[in-house]
Amino acid sequence: VDGATRLADRLRERPGTGVLVNAVRPHRLRLMPALDVTDDEVDFLLEALEGALDDASADAAAQAPMAGRPV
What we know:
The chain is an alpha+beta fold.
């Protein structure tokens, strides 16, 4: 599974984002908020995206336990 798909899945798991999201390329997301989105809703979405990025980063680090360790 590529990074964008993993991140899209994480973002969908976060409650209340209210936005359609899909991975259109291995490293590209498409966010589709409602046409009448408010500034507060955009701020909420950006916070949710930041949380999803943190979750995906933690997942990647957990899957590579030897990364960064001396050989």
